[in-house]
């Protein structure tokens, strides 16, 4: 009887919206730019520390999966499996970044704030998905893709940073 008086919220579609399509395009673009920078910098690869390669490897996994995860059907077994891999890659990227301090040797940079935020938000991506809280899951994913993946990623293209130097140098 009480349910007659409670307005139920309309179900929102889990299909990708315009913002998620834009995020997918931006992630694809960043992936292409990073790959181009890597190719252009191939003569200097031997001088790059292993920790930087580990960081690049995990971020490449996250960047490659992002468009697929944002544009393909959601809630499938494939989405769940790739989502776990994506979250693990994001956590690994953030954790490894604390050991990458080439810009300011021995010190953290402002971009490490995004790493700390990533480590705080990434579990929410997984927990909200497990709880089937679509709205909170979507917000957490969008936040990580926007801030930790794209904003941080495009900041690495500054000419004084490794990828930026390879790309523009």
What does this protein structure show overall?
- The chain is mostly helical.
- 67% of the residues lie in helices and 0% in strands.
- The chain is built from 6 helices and no strands.
- It has helices at 18-40, 50-71, 77-97, 112-130, 134-155, 162-168.
- The longest helix has 23 residues, at 18-40.
- It is globular.
- Mean pLDDT is 90; it is low at 1-8.
Features:
mainly alpha; 6 helices; globular
Give the structure's gist in a few sentences.
By secondary structure, the chain is mainly α. It has helices at residues 18-40, 50-71, 77-97, 112-130, 134-155, 162-168. The termini are far apart.
Show the helix and strand layout.
Layout (H helix, E strand, L loop, with lengths): L17 H23 L9 H22 L5 H21 L14 H19 L3 H22 L6 H7 L1
